[in-house]
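Here is one chain, start to finish.
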Amino acid sequence: MTVRLVSSLFALFLSVGLLVIGNSFLMTLLGMRLSLDEVDPRLIGGVMVSYSIGFVLGSIYAIHIVHRVGHIRAFAVLCAVLGIAALCYPMNDAFLLWVLLRVAGGFAMAGLLIVAESWFSAIATNDNRSAIFSLYQICFYLATSVGQLLIMLGHPSNYFLFSLVTAVLIAAIIPLGLTRMQSPTLESVERLSLKKVFSISPLGVLSTFMSGIIVSSFYGVGPLFSNLIGFSVEQTAWFMSLSVFTAMLFAWPIGWLCDRIDRVKILFYLTGLATVFSLLLCFVLQVSWLVMLLNGLFMAFVAAIYPVGVALM
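Its structure:
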């Protein structure tokens, strides 16, 4: 993968980075806000899972927006939706409103990732596909790590943090909106059903699906978990940030290995290591630095399953 190729994608990487900073910041902020307000954990789960419902809907239907107005305009529209939703949370704490806002946020985020990942896929070749997606994962997780730390700029109960989230999300429109880079040409192709994709690459589908379940669960209930084991707001921010940062550290070397070693073997080793660290974590919940270390290693290997699964598919 050449420096020229990376530089041509700089605006896209920057917009994705700002988008992910804002979205990860918002997810942690919502979890902490609900936890500090002593909301029933079942209701917290209901709010958080609403994001996933919206994400699934966006994965199916957001592509129509891209086909209608193109990649760059679709990115701008969906960023605006995500920003408006973020600004509405502190206006009213009604459970149903927050559920609807999370659904809208999930839908928008799915569409935004479709724009970004389809753009990367259009440019990538079979020789550099894993490397490009690993670089994308590095950008994704570095931005997510930064987003967790922004929670320390204020208290979760304040309106300021929600305004800051909105500003970051809207700022994500600027780099891509100013770029001269040509967006991919949209082609009319046969839509593959999940059953068809599974018949082509069952291991790829299962690995990405399971990685998505675990990672999204962590983002959703990680702040609640850290609050329940006695972490402060600052410790929670570092807990979330370090978990994502370790995932970033492993993204590039694993991507490099996947272009040179059988990806099925890599997937087997990643799954085994993630299992070991998750089991060890259960025995050290009273030691904060060990919780952060082991959870970080667990997240690193779980998160790495996703790009390997994508490469398989």
